[in-house]
Amino acid sequence: MKAFVLTRYGKKNTVEPVERPVPDLRDDDVLAQIHATSINPLDLKIRNGELKPLLPYKLPLVLGNDLAGIVVKTGPRVRRFAPGDAVYAKPNQDRIGTFAEYLAVDENDVAKKPDNVDMNEAAALPLVGLTAWQALVDKARVRPGQKVLIHAGSGGLGSIAIQLAKHLGATVATTTGTRNVEWVEELGADIVIDYKTTDFATELRDYDLVLDTRGGRTLDRSFQVLKPGGQVISVAGPPEPTFARKFGANRLLVQATRALSFSVRRKAKRRSVSYSFLFMTANGDQLGKLGALVDAGVIQPVIDRVYPFDSTLDALAYVENGRATGKVVVTVAGDHDHP
């Protein structure tokens, strides 16, 4: 099968198309023929080597974190899926590899594809959908009437998080560039801050939650908009020691995260709010719940561009330039024979 493989860490000429054997199945695995995948900032971070301390992958590595496709084979212990099922998934972090024609995935990380979307739309959902779910539902337990600020509302994560937060009954503020203001309002944002003309930190007050997708200065200023007891959940800021321990990091790495996150944690403490880093985990049950919301019309995947599989490197470059509105999808499957 054809796959796009990371041969060494770095930004330039490190990913290339190669022929690989179709993956072997473990007892609890389904083998999916991949019809579509999508590009995430996480793929770029892995490629660049930014996550090496947390995710010590062995190279060469097939990149890719989202898939929609058809089950073509199942392991002997699989009970929930059968050949022919249309599915979507975010594979577990140690078994990524969706920039390929086939992938073996643990059945617990897989869900039936929502009926109301096609393969491209389904492939746009798993990673960002699970991140939004785990931030807003699991961690923050967002309730009706709460105020939530979601940074970068026009991005892949932001566009889904706005829709989910509205469904949970929150008042939603978001930041975006001038050209996307009306568009994020259509997604459901109640208050839209054009970051090119307005400073969100002087406009917003007494928020319960900030979902930070930017890190850096945006993260620093996010503490100012929270009420006491509020929280910042970040997918872009420094991991804190609690996260590192849960992730199974060694003692040195836990110490490193303590140092890296020190100033952010101190800011949070001074303002009587909390800070936590979120690294999404694979979860087929949650994907099932998200799929139900998609089929109910509550959440709509947002796609900026679709590339053919041969142009995966162009798709990566397009996401890297940071201009995507919603997700960038790669269509993988042709009508070729099953293994």
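The above is record 1. Record 2 follows with the same two-line structure.
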Amino acid sequence: MYFSLAFLLSGLALVSPVLSEVCKGQVTLSEYYIGVDKNVKVETVSCPEISHAKRSDLSSRQASGATNVCGAECDTSCFTPSGGGPDPNECHVIADALRYDSENTGTYFDVNNGTAGDNIVVMTYNSCETFFANQADGVLEYCRTDWASVIDWVAPNCQSTQNAHGGDCIASDQTWFIQVQHS
């Protein structure tokens, strides 16, 4: 089930003519900006055509009852063939914004779930787009600095020189994944 969702999301995101669309029929539920310059757009999105999707929220919470997946390993893969990857320097701006928010807002964020299909948090800066998708049955708590580290690894290592155009990092239990791609 996971691989079909990841494939569906990555395939639709790459052929979509709409900027920042990660799934067909995407609906933006909230939008705000983060980072020292407030230049990284954050969206919580709903993917109504994916029936088992869940609810997301990038707000910090104390005593959320969430499953903490900070520090959890994920397996990275690059999307082939080459061409059209994001600018790693622009992806690094998103990573820095996450680190800034970690210091100023809080270390953790929750990615909720529910029946509304809004289990995805998307961040965009110029050519770079990244998203965190919760596929678990419950709320996940993740570290902003961990997301930043994944971005800083995937963006420069999944480029045309590696015959790629972005990539993802999939949790070993397949309950979540992070994707980095051209916006």
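Residues 1-19, 51-63 have pLDDT under 50 and may be disordered.
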